[in-house]
Every structure is written in C-alpha cells, then in structure tokens.
Amino acid sequence: EAQVTQNPRYLITVTGKKLTVTCSQNMNHEYMSWYRQDPGLGLRQIYYSMNVEVTDKGDVPEGYKVSRKEKRNFPLILESPSPNQTSLYFCASRLQGAGNQPQHFGDGTRLSIL
Amino acid sequence: QQPVQSPQAVILREGEDAVINCSSSKALYSVHWYRQKHGEAPVFLMILLKGGEQKGHDKISASFNEKKQQSSLYLTASQLSYSGTYFCGTEGFMGGKLIFGQGTELSVKP
Predict the structure, then answer these.
(1) Dihedral over Cα of A84, A110, B104, A34: its sign
(2) Do the chains contact at B100 and A42, CB–CB below 8 Å?
C-alpha cells in the first residue's frame, strides 16, 4: 500500500532532550516536506526536500533540522526542543518538486514538550 | 506569504451549497485544495494550474483566476461527509514551497 509513515505518532518529552521524528515513503517520490499544524494557523511548512541531499527552508525552520540521505526517508530533528514546538507535525511527499503534483500526507505526530 | 481564506467557518444544512475563497498577494503557478477531518491527515482534493482553469470532483469543483490570484472551491448539494476543514495551498513558479491558508471549517448538519 502506498503510504507515508511517521513515527512516533505521539510523544511527550521535556525541554532540551533531543528527539527525531522519522518519515518514510514507499512511492519513490522525489519531493518530501514537513509541516506543523497549530490551531488557527493552518499548516506551516518547516523544511522541504526536492531530492536526495537537497533540502531548503520553509516558513518556520527555526529550531529544526532535517536530512535527506536516502530518497525514502526524511527525518525531522529537534536538537533542543522547547515548549513552543509543541504541535501536530505532518510529513508529506509528492512525485516531483513541480507544483502540479498532489501531496500525500502521513498520519501525523503529536509532540508535547514540557 | 500565507494565502487568506474566507470564510473562516460555515455551517450548512444537507443539500445546501457553499463557496470557499482563497486569495494570495503573490503570482501563483498552482493552487491546491485539501480537506482534513478532525484528527486525521489532510486529503488531496484537486490542483489548479495557472491558465484560469476550472476542475471538478464529484459535486466539488474549483476555479482559479490567475489575474486576481484567487481560487474558489464550490461545494454543491452538500453531504454530511463534506464536513471538515478545507485548506488551500499556493505555490509559486520556483516550486517546492507549498504555503497553506489558515483553513475554513465546514460543518454540514442533517
């Protein structure tokens, strides 16, 4: 089944403890992206990747890191999480970077940082 | 720059129609529409490309006016299953940055 898989789905952690949210897709998509969703603010793009080893900042990249060493994986790294990063996070992928392709979203990861 | 959606929320009775608007201040290559049910991931509805096209998806259709950088989503004869939050996403000509609006919450009542 074609899908985008995120792990973990839920995480409660403490300020300053490094964490990684994994994202994997099995559709051989070139483009992958991370969003955070907060009430009233919609989906805001954190980082995106047009292809392997190519990443770029979205609108809210501060406090986050990403890497794209393999086509299928695009992990989101919070080196020193803070409470303002408590949010619902979505990973998405699409066939190519061109804007005429639909995006497929993972099921989301709910992060709570105390 | 985040596109602006209107209205922010709308309540309908089954069978009624609704229009959701999405407006951007930037030149656009494409407009995406997604629907999200509570607690679930956004689901793709349709993409419109520059050229002023209109697309349809069952009783849901959309238009894109590239001169005004505006898109509208039309829901006709609404069903209970249409309830959810609708997001428009806009992308410029460079590609890669898909920026979403703040969402429109649609509730369809029996």
Answers:
(1) positive
(2) yes
User: Are A97 and B94 contacting, i.e. CB atoms less than 8 angstroms apart?
Assistant: no
- Single-letter amino acid code for the residue at B63: S
Q: Which residue among A45, A58, A102 sits closest to B44, beta carbon to beta carbon? A: A102
Do residue A102 and residue B32 have CB atoms under 8 angstroms apart?
A: yes
CB proximity B99 to A under 8 Å: yes
Q: What are the backbone angles phi and psi of residue B82, rounded to the nearest 5°?
A: -75, -15
Residue of B29, B71, B97 to mutate when probing chain A, most A C-beta within 10 A? B97
- CA-nearest residue of chain B to A60? B99
Please state the separation of Cα B15 from the chain's center in Å. Answer: 19
pLDDT at position B92 is 86
CA B8, B71, A48, A102 dihedral sign is: positive
What's the pLDDT score for residue B94?
A: 80
CA B109, CA B4: separation in Å to the nearest integer? 26
B105-110 mean pLDDT: 96
Contact at CB, B96 and A50, closer than 8 angstroms: yes
Q: What is the mean pLDDT of residues B28-34?
A: 92
Does residue A42 surpass a pLDDT of 80? yes
